[in-house]
Design brief:
Blueprint: E1 10-12, H1 23-33, E2 37-43, H2 44-47, H3 57-68, E3 72-78, H4 84-91
Parallel strand pairs: 1-2, 2-3
């Protein structure tokens, strides 16, 4: 995609829809809505499933599939604020 300004016709995924198993249901919905942009959540637990071990595969999958469907992305990053209880319990 180019870097030109565009009118965002966006849709938002349900919080659990960023998991790869849910993505096949997301793209038909985006096409049905004629959206050109998808806001999709990414959770820290997806990115760092174990302390110090980073996994970019889910973000990579979302980006790859968005490109295949010619859809722009807004990544809604849920880090320590939303998942503070989980992080606290994992890191003591």
């Amino acid at each position: 995609m180019d870097c030109a300004p565009f009118l965002m016709l966006g849709a938002q995924c349900h919080n659990s829809s960023a998991w790869p198993a849910m993505l096949p249901k997301v793209w038909p919905a985006i096409e049905y809505l004629h959206a050109n942009t998808l806001e999709i959540p990414v959770y820290w637990e997806q990115f760092e499933p174990e302390p110090g071990k980073f996994d970019t595969s889910i973000v990579d999958t979302i980006i790859k599939q968005a490109r295949e469907h010619n859809v722009r992305l807004v990544l809604l990053w849920f880090g320590t604020w939303k998942t503070a209880a989980r992080i606290t319990s994992r890191y003591g």
